[in-house]
Amino acid sequence: MTKTLSTFKHLECSLTGDMFPIDKPLRLSPSSEKPLLARYDLNKAAKTLTQENLYKRRNDMWRYQEILPILDDENIVSLGEGNTPFMKLNNLSKIFQIENFYVKDESNNPTGSFKARGLSAAISKAKEYGIKSIVMPSAGNAAGAMSAYAAKSNMEANVFMPKDAPLANKMECIAFGANVKLVDGFISDAGKASALEAEKRGLFDVSTLKEPYRVEGKKTMGLEIAEQMDWEVPDVIIYPTGGGTGIVGIWKAFQELEQIGLVSSKKPKMVVVQADGCSPLVDAYEKNEKFAKPFENPKTLAAGMRVPLAVGDFIIYDILKKSNGTAVRINDDEMLEGVSLLASEEGIFAAPEGGAILMASKRLRKEGFIKDSDKVVIVNTGSAYKYLDMMENKFWGD
Ligand SMILES: Cc1ncc(COP(=O)(O)O)c(C=O)c1O
Hints:
About 40% of the residues lie in helices and about 15% in strands. It is an alpha/beta fold.
């Protein structure tokens, strides 16, 4: 057994601030049924999480072990997640007149999306707690990632997915050996079926933000953005938002890095992007409501953003307010235009979610939210190769 340098101390309720010990697996906060967040001894972390030490470390997301929750090295379940490209969008920066325009390209992760980070962290922690069987509802990419990490760690994976999830996601889950159940309905219906199965069979449910560790994995996107920018904080980060774990994680990264002393107290303006056909968080933000209303009949080809209600809605609302950010709706045609532009101008074949953030940045520049000298980062969360069946008509016609 080799101890990691983790300084993981306790879990904190995101609503009440109540603290909980980490000796046994917890999911939602016992005091509020809202998400729990991992808290670390950041003074201790600052002693070893330094620029000099980072040069010598492994090249994946586990290089930031002081502020990750795994205590024993042997429990890390890794497929090489993280260390994804951070690139200047040279051609699009001219077209959109955003001089400092960058992409963090998460399509390079195992299983083709940023979901690998969250599931690597969640399954590693589940392994540390001795959990053998897990369950999750998913719009698609998370299920693929969960199934891959479960295969690697010999865990039983159970997946509940909407029937019309992308074909690639259904196929990869089966290939990775998961028990796949297709549900007639949306991710919320898959969530109900998954919760029932969890109760019936005593499975550990790793639904997004309903267990505390996926967000820790996704936090490493923010850590990498900071490191790849040489510890400079960008002015704007634009993120395609469904369940919201990504945006919560990236914000948490900049908070922790500030306390550790690796970045200044400047914070990026965070931008939530959702689909016209499913925008509960944008609606809530525009109405100044901390808690979102479930979006009825969600419809968009961006399966990852087809989430009618996010458990962490109030956390995301606070992030938007605190960061002077904003929230944007993009329709499916615009997303596809964004996919085409990223491909033809920059050589990146992005998921529709990536197309959405690109078009959001175009709009925000036009409207003046993005200023002349702003350093703008868009996070392309996934690969178009996962959505070929959903996007086929765009490229071949009907
Ligand atoms: C490609 C893609 N982008 C974005 C999202 C939304 O991510 P989050 O749950 O972190 O908001 C998902 C979730 O399924 C996804 O698969």
